[in-house]
Specification:
By secondary structure, the chain is of the alpha+beta class. The protein folds into three domains: 71 residues; 107 residues, Tyrosine recombinase, N-terminal domain (DNA polymerase, domain 1), CATH 1.10.150; 211 residues, hpI Integrase, Chain A (Orthogonal Bundle), CATH 1.10.443. The longest helix has 20 residues.
C-alpha cells in the first residue's frame, strides 16, 4: 500500500540552507575581504562591499562602530587611510589633551600621542596637512620612540639629541632626513613645555643642510624625451623595471607599457609648471583655454603646498591638452568632472606610479636618465624643474617673483633649488649684453 504521507522537512533543516537565505545587502562587508590593519588594534579593519569598488574601513569606539570609505582600490593605500582614520577618531572622541594617569616619572614616549592628537586637531582645522601628520607619526613612533622613548622628559637634553643624530648618521641618512627627525623631536618637547612638564625646550644639535636639487632636462634632452615617448608607444616595459619600487610589481600589474598620452604629459608639464601631485587631482573643470593676444591655459587647481592661485601655461601646453581632450572624448571621457590624465583610473596614486615607470623607461632608452652635471636621477618632478629652468634661460627679462607665483612656489625655493643647475655660460648673452640707449 503506497505511503501518501507528505514528506515534512523540519524547519531547522532549512534555516541555514543557502536556497532559503535572503540575498546579502550590498552594503554589508564581504566576509572573505575582512582584514585587520597590521600593528593596530584588532577592532580596526578594512573590507569590501558589493556596492562599491573601494575598500571600506571601520573601527569600534565607546560602544559604537564607525565606518568610512577609503576612496581607493589599493589595499596598501587603504591601510594608510585606515590608520589616519583611527588616529582622527581617537583625537575627536577622546580629546586632544590625553591625560597621563600614571604615577611614575613622565618619559618622552608618554607625550608622543598627545602631540600627535594636537596636530590632528590642526589637520581638522586646515592648518596642517594629513600627509605631514602621517610622516610625523611615522618618524616618532617607528624610529624616535624606540631610541628615546624611555628618557625622562625632565632629563631630556642636548646630548640625547646628539646621540640620536649620530645613530641616524651611522645608518647613512642624509642631512635633510636627520633635520626632519630633529624637528619631530622638537615638536614633542614644545608640547611638553606648553603642558607644563618642562620649563624650557632644551637645545638640540644644529645640522647643515646640503640641498640636492632634482635634475632637470636641457632643451635638447627634452626634445629627445618627447621623440622617444612617441616612438615607443605600445612598447612593454620589462619586468625588472617595475620591481625597483618598494611597493613591488603587484602594485601596478606584472607589466606596464608606454601609452600614447605620455608624450602629451611630458609636453604639458614642461609648459605648465605643475607638480606631479597636480596630475592626480586635475580635472577638465579646472582647465580653461584662453585665446586672445596670448593663447594659454588657465589652471584653477586644488590647493597644493598652501598655494591656491591659478596657473597660466605656455602655448605648447594648449595643444597637448587639446590632443588629450580629443582622445578622451573618443573613449567616452572628457566631461568636466573627469580627470585629465588616465581618467579611467580611480586610484590616483597608482596613476602617478604608472607614469613614473613609463617615463623611467623612456629615459633609459633615450639615455637621459641621469643629469650629467650633478649625477641626480630624473623623475616626474624633473619635468617641473625643466619648466622653471627653461623659463629662467629663455624667458627674457622675467622676474623671479612672477615666475615663483605662477609656479606656486617662492623666490627662495627657485634660487635654492631650481636655479642651482644653471651655469653662467648658459646666459652668456645676458652677461655680455649692453643697454640700449
Amino acid at each position: 500500500m503506497p505511503n501518501n504521507t507528505p514528506n515534512i522537512v523540519p524547519v531547522f533543516a532549512t534555516a541555514n540552507d543557502e536556497f532559503y537565505r535572503g540575498a546579502r545587502h550590498r552594503s554589508l562587508p564581504i566576509p572573505e575581504t575582512m582584514t585587520h590593519v597590521p600593528d593596530y588594534p584588532a577592532k580596526l579593519r578594512i573590507y569590501k562591499i558589493a556596492a562599491s569598488p573601494f575598500w571600506q574601513m571601520r573601527c569600534h569606539f565607546k560602544g559604537k562602530t564607525y565606518t568610512k570609505t577609503t576612496q581607493t582600490t589599493s589595499k596598501r593605500t587603504a591601510f594608510v587611510k585606515a590608520r589616519d582614520f583611527f588616529h582622527s577618531k581617537v583625537a575627536e572622541l577622546y580629546g586632544v589633551a590625553v591625560q597621563l594617569t600614571t604615577e611614575r616619572e613622565v618619559v618622552f614616549a608618554d607625550l608622543v600621542d598627545p602631540t600627535l592628537a594636537m596636530h590632528q586637531g590642526r589637520v581638522d582645522r586646515g592648518e596642517f596637512t594629513q600627509n605631514s601628520l602621517r610622516m610625523l607619526r611615522n618618524r616618532l613612533q617607528r624610529y624616535v620612540v624606540p631610541v628615546l622613548g624611555q628618557v625622562p622628559i625632565q632629563d631630556f637634553g642636548y646630548q640625547h639629541g646628539a646621540d640620536f643624530m649620530q645613530k641616524l648618521s651611522a645608518k647613512g641618512n642624509s642631512s635633510v632626513t636627520i633635520q626632519q627627525y630633529l624637528v619631530s623631536i622638537r615638536k614633542v618637547l614644545t608640547h611638553a613645555m606648553a603642558t607644563g612638564y618642562i620649563k624650557v625646550v632644551p637645545k638640540l644639535p644644529n645640522i647643515t643642510i646640503k640641498s640636492k636639487p632634482r635634475g632637470s632636462f636641457s632643451l635638447p634632452e627634452y626634445r629627445l624625451l618627447v621623440t622617444h615617448a612617441r616612438r615607443l608607444i605600445g612598447d612593454v616595459i620589462p619586468i625588472h623595471a617595475t620591481q625597483r619600487s618598494k611597493y613591488g610589481p603587484s602594485r601596478i600589474g606584472r607589466y606596464e607599457y608606454i601609452k600614447e598620452d605620455l608624450q602629451y604629459l611630458i609636453v604639458f608639464m614642461v609648459n605648465s609648471f605643475i607638480r606631479p601631485s597636480d596630475l592626480k587631482n586635475m580635472k577638465h573643470e579646472h582647465v580653461t583655454i584662453v585665446r586672445g593676444e596670448h593663447v594659454y591655459l588657465r589652471l584653477n587647481l586644488p590647493e597644493s603646498k598652501k598655494h591656491d592661485k591659478p596657473i597660466v601655461t605656455m602655448r605648447p601646453a594648449v595643444r597637448a591638452y587639446e590632443r588629450l581632450l580629443e582622445r578622451d572624448k573618443g573613449r567616452g571621457y572628457g566631461k568636466p568632472e573627469d580627470y585629465v590624465f588616465m581618467p579611467e583610473l580611480w586610484d590616483r596614486l597608482v596613476m602617478i606610479m604608472r607614469y613614473g615607470y613609463q617615463l623611467q623607461r623612456v629615459q633609459e632608452v633615450a639615455g637621459v636618465g641621469v643629469n650629467k652635471s650633478n649625477g641626480m636621477k630624473r623623475t616626474l618632478y624633473s619635468l617641473r624643474h625643466t619648466a622653471i629652468t627653461l623659463r629662467l634661460l629663455y624667458g627674457g627679462n622675467i622676474d623671479l617673483l612672477t615666475l615663483a607665483r605662477n609656479a606656486r612656489t617662492s623666490v627662495e625655493m627657485i634660487e635654492t633649488y631650481y636655479s642651482s643647475n644653471l651655469e653662467a655660460e648658459m646666459n652668456i648673452g645676458l652677461l655680455q649684453g649692453k643697454r640700449s640707449k
